[in-house]
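In practice, a research group might receive sequence data for several interacting partners and want a quick structural hypothesis before committing to experiments. The following worked case mirrors that situation: the sequences arrive first, and a predicted assembly follows.
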Amino acid sequence: MSDRIVIVGAGQAAAQAVQTLRAENVAAPITMIGDEAYLPYQRPPLSKKFLAGELEAERLLIRPVEFYKEAAVEIRLGQKVVALDRKAKAVRLGSGEVIPYGKLLLATGSRVRRLGGPNAELPGVFYLRDIADVDAIRPHFKPGARLTVIGGGYVGLEVAAVAAKSGLEVTVLEIADRVLARVASPEISSFFEAEHKKAGVAIRTRCGAVSIEGKGKLEAVRAGDDRINADLLIVGIGILPNMELAADAGLACDNGILVDENARTSDPDILAAGDCTTHPNPLMNRRLRLESVQNAIDQAKAAAHAMAGRPRPYAEVPWFWSDQYDLKLQSAGLSEPGDARVLRGEMSARKFAVFHLRDGVVVAVECVNAAPEYMIGRQLIAKKARIAPERLADVNTPMKALI
Amino acid sequence: MAKIKYIEHNGKEHVLEVPNGWSVMEGAVKNLVPGIDADCGGACACATCHVYVGEEWLSKLEPKSDMEQTMLDFASEVKENSRLSCQIKVSEALDGLVVRMPESQH
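A structural hypothesis for the assembly, expressed as tokens:
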């Protein structure tokens, strides 16, 4: 029987798992299988500095190739795992090769949600998820080019910011009544909407049904009654967890691969970490599927500790960030409709925070250029602290006095 | 290119040539120097790339931004000469820089 640890996926969670496994002195052979051509790399800069051309691909790598050599990891890049046989305890690659495992870590990540309908595959229509996507987009990022972005989420707005700075003519289409509707409060949404408008980006919320027009290549995007001429379309309408390999093998899945607080799936020899999972979060009191670097790193650590036989349950306050123009948005915790919101600072000063309280307890914070609020806010959330709204709102009370 | 000396908490030294434009954090991570986690990859979002800068170098570095200062306020074992290594950009002027790692980044 093999004692090999096989990692399916070669992203942030995979790289972290390798690091923690070896740091925990797990000596088992490790094989890491990724379907992209690259060693694990950071995705967040793809829609920011990498798109802007300020960072070479080599600098995106989470660890250099020597790291994996030193860790004696057998690396298979450009290979897809097509089947998981839990009885035989083995995975099968697209090439037909079968690799047996002792423990399996599914770090399969997520993929973009794609537009349907006619013309969705026309040249000029792009998604942004990996290095190859950005390499394809970059040649079209020329001053004066007309870019339409579908989706006013983090990726869509980050792309819009880079494009506006690069001199493109940018329109963002959002189906909801505000940008960042799924991930941010109305205050943050309206602030970023205003910032983008100042930068010359046209934002159309409640844009209605969107369709693509063009003969042989993209020519325009139709949103409701409007027709917007476009040289380039970037679609950022969310991601889907890559859970099919797990589901086909009979592992429990529901909007992601179901794992416990130690990143274990319903099969004791199979763990999962990162975007592809949903996990019970004791701090948020519910199951979460998170799409973030923090989740990939912390859950991969939990998976590695579990594989090492020294479980260290995953219980972190989720945190996120986004860079747009000179603005750093940092948020922690998760809010729900119905939570009370408290504004601290002035939005016009471009430095403020929105705290979210549920039954008087701090459950989330969103900060724009406001690091103290973010750092202390994270601790308040972890402690389930109860702070009077007037004190949170009072900028003359230093954040440190609230902890 | 600048020669930078990284000293682990246990005293082990690593002298590396780091390209201009990279951060001091990248110089460590890409050369397998242990002791710098850099969870966020250099976005000044996590404070896990904390280092102590040799006293004689402090005045030669670009001053800390408000963001870096605040992130540092919440790192552990912070001293006068603490910096986040992702925020120190390497140039010829930093040739000979010495940084020491704290015991832990968390």
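Before designing any experiment, note the following. The longest strand of chain B covers residues 2-7. Residues 7 and 13 of chain B are 4 Å apart (CA to CA).
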